Amino acid sequence: xxxxxPILHGYFRSSCSxxxxxxxxxxxxxFDQVPVNLIKDGGQQYSEQYKTLNPMQQVPAxxxxxxxxxxxxxxxxxxxETRPGLRLLPAxxxxxxxxxxxxxxxxxxxxxxxNLYVIQKIGTEKVQWAQHFxxxxxxxxxxxxxxxxxxxxxxxxxxxxxxxxxxxVYNAERFKVDMDQFPTIKRLNQTLLEIEAFNTxxxxxxxxxxADLQK
Amino acid sequence: xxxxxPILHGYFRSSCSxxxxxxxxxxxxxFDQVPVNLIKDGGQQYSEQYKTLNPMQQVPAxxxxxxxxxxxxxxxxxxxETRPGLRLLPAxxxxxxxxxxxxxxxxxxxxxxxNLYVIQKIGTEKVQWAQHFxxxxxxxxxxxxxxxxxxxxxxxxxxxxxxxxxxxVYNAERFKVDMDQFPTIKRLNQTLLEIEAFNTxxxxxxxxxxADLQK
Lengths: 215, 215
Description:
Chain A contains ten helices and four strands. Chain A has helices at 15-27, 48-53, 72-82, 93-107, 111-114, 116-122, 126-148, 160-174, 183-193, 196-199; strands spanning 7-10, 32-35, 61-64, 67-70. Chains A, B: Pfam families: GST_C, GST_N.
């Protein structure tokens, strides 16, 4: 029903699922998780049942307030616009624009080019391909963040930009990108990972995290 | 100065530049265009000068109110939040979420995978690659739009979702995607192209449109 807890259909290691987990945690919203294993059974996201939740056959999909939403930034902004608590976007329009610009550099300019589906389709040189696009994106983000960042990506308030940054750095580390090239990104990531909402939602400690990947 | 007309650095055929042109036109905002030729001189977006405007070295970049913004959806929402006139996102939070979901399926799920830079990097089978990702995205969009659409993508008001849809259909046609598979998308595109703000901003009639591509 519309009044029950939101349901997140996601995968422990999906950076887009992690974004939504952080947003719920920052807002203090209880939610249920239904794991969608992107590897097992040839990819559970390809089932007919899951396709009705997200026709793109990607995670996440979120059932909330009687509707089903996909696309993590749409979900995060919906949560922000309908729930009280910490603001995930600043009140100032220029700061909001900077938060969205940084979020979209990651969500449109980096993540789609290094996600599982595309990497599988590339065939050879998967790691080099992913590294190339993460490096290109981070080379753009680093000077932008040097201008916008305070303690966090935009000023001193946690925002959607931070929610996008941390899972993307996690992906960068999986693909062995040299993070020493990006001191601002590295510093922000370290600061953010100390916040409980980023820490408790980490891929290493989700209900569907395999035992050998748990910390 | 902050009070002068916004400057759009873009390219006639870039779908992300066209999105911003439509948004300005729907809002009735005068703007100046500075062409960035993505082909000439090995790509003018790679110049050191342009890199300061958009470190991702992509179009568009927009100078507005004393700041420089990139990422078309961040620009469009900034315009919407700071300018009067037609709303580009609906007031209702669930409808706003649907508008953002549809916009992001295009802006994160389709366009980045078929843009010039990626297509150039693929090497062989460029057209098949682009067709594959446009087909995959449109196969997801078609059932979503069947549920959300009225006269336009979400209900009967033009929104950011429509601003994203029309330029993506233009790209689909360039890559010879069979649009008869997607009757809802096709119908929406035809309806939208009759609106002046979509028509006057079309790639076929911009200041930098080459003579042989003008209509």
